[in-house]
């Protein structure tokens, strides 16, 4: 097998039973973890660095026409999390597509999704009971 080494029999501990072998293995890992934990308290703190998100510059900007086409092709279904019903969105598609295209392109450019949009993904949806349908 590639990547696996044969264990040297003289290095492995011997046990009289499977229970004893399991206990020895458990003790080994408990002591190993204790050593790691006690050593980490004395280790120097790592410096904190601000992470910089890379710009998403490999995306082709979307056009108003592409946004409009996607909206009009979408099924006219809505859910309570939708900011506006799909049917209403389709009726005012010409008015909203410039803003939507700009928002999508800015998100592609900066790698940031506006809070008002990302908040929708954070909301929990509860399954509807049969009585509420």
Report on the architecture of this protein.
- By secondary structure, the protein is an all-alpha fold.
- The chain has a domain at 64-123.
- It is built from five helices and no strands.
- The chain has helices at 18-42, 64-73, 86-91, 93-110, 115-122.
- Helix 2 (64-73) packs across helix 4 (93-110).
- It is elongated.
- The mean pLDDT is 75.
| Uncertain ranges | none
Helix fraction, binned, reads 40-55%
- The number of helical runs is 5
Can you tell me the overall shape?
elongated
Notable traits:
single chain, 133 residues, mainly alpha, 5 helices, 50% helix, elongated
Q: What would a concise description of this structure say?
A:
The chain has 133 residues and is an all-alpha fold. The chain is 50% helix and 0% strand.
Explain the layout of strands and helices:
Elements: H1 18-42, H2 64-73, H3 86-91, H4 93-110, H5 115-122
Helix pairs in contact: 2-4
